[in-house]
Design a protein that fits this description.
Keywords: Hydrolase, Membrane, Transmembrane, Transmembrane helix. Its EC number is 3.4.-.-. This is CPBP family intramembrane glutamic endopeptidase. It comes from Flavobacterium calami. By secondary structure, the protein is mostly helical. It has 13 helices and three strands; from the N terminus they run H-H-H-H-H-E-H-H-H-H-H-E-E-H-H-H. The chain has helices at 13-29, 32-43, 53-57, 62-87, 104-128, 139-176, 180-192, 198-203, 208-225, 229-245, 269-290, 295-300, 308-316, and strands at residues 133-135, 246-247, 259-261. A three-stranded mixed sheet has the order 1-3-2. Helix 1 runs antiparallel to helix 4, helix 6 (139-176) runs antiparallel to helix 10 (229-245) and helix 9 (208-225) packs antiparallel against helix 10 (229-245). The chain is globular and about 55 Å long.
Amino acid sequence: MFLEQGIKPENKFWKYLLGSVVIISASVFGQFPLYLAVQYETLINKKPHPENDKMLMKMFDSNLTLFLVMTSFAFALAGVYYVVRHMHHQSILSVTTSRKKADIKRVLFSFFLWTGFSVLSFLIVYLQSPENFILNFKPIPFLILVVIGTLMIPIQTSTEEYVFRGYLMQGFANLAKNKWFPLLMTSLIFGSLHWFNPEVGKMGNIIMIYYIGTGFFLGIITLMDEGMELALGFHAANNLIGALLVTSDWTVFQTYSLFIDKSEPSAGFDVILPVIVIYPILLFIFSKKYNWTNWKEKLTGNIKETDDEVTEFLNLN
């Protein structure tokens, strides 16, 4: 039912391509505050102009950098709202869930479940090799990080979920009229966009298994649960807890996290462990809690178009 809510004769695939351009343009426009900050530092404070992303990330205090970078996602989210409402004439609810309203309890359950997994995983690694970590607790900067992270990181993760598990998943469903193709394409695109992350350069291409596998996991729980509340909660917990708990000098963001990982990164079984072990455990937990059935049909079946009156109701409410 979730994908079917976006199936309309006028929702040609070219509209989704055009809508994607609008969303990307909004995101680029949202980088203007960062651009102004860079110009101020180079022209007024005479700092050297950053020649790469690593220099850019180190140009400002890490809390300010996080806020400036996250701002572009707020603009992109506004872009999502615009294209959904005014180009596709759908409600935001119709690209969020098939339920009558978004289930906040699902979001929170997923958030705290993955928070627990993340903290437990870190504790296990820390207890095995405490020499690889430095306590980095700085009360004031950390509290500022908590505020900025709590406000801005869910905007970032929600934007990505609305683009991939909401907007584009329904877009590919309009194109293919089945469920496996949207799941495949959104997962591959989501994972591939992480290709230029510094983690890939440090750990090798094998880490793409994790990124693409995470895309598949988020797509599966969206299709099985007929809505993306669980994906919203998981993604927010993954990025927020990561930013607050531990950082290193080779990750995308360096933050005032509680710990700094000073170990040399390497790609081994730990990279694919979440994909082949942890994610299946989470799928089992979700399936039991929310009584998921008919997996094959929900993940690979053909799209059944909704009745015109039902579609009209869903899109206007």
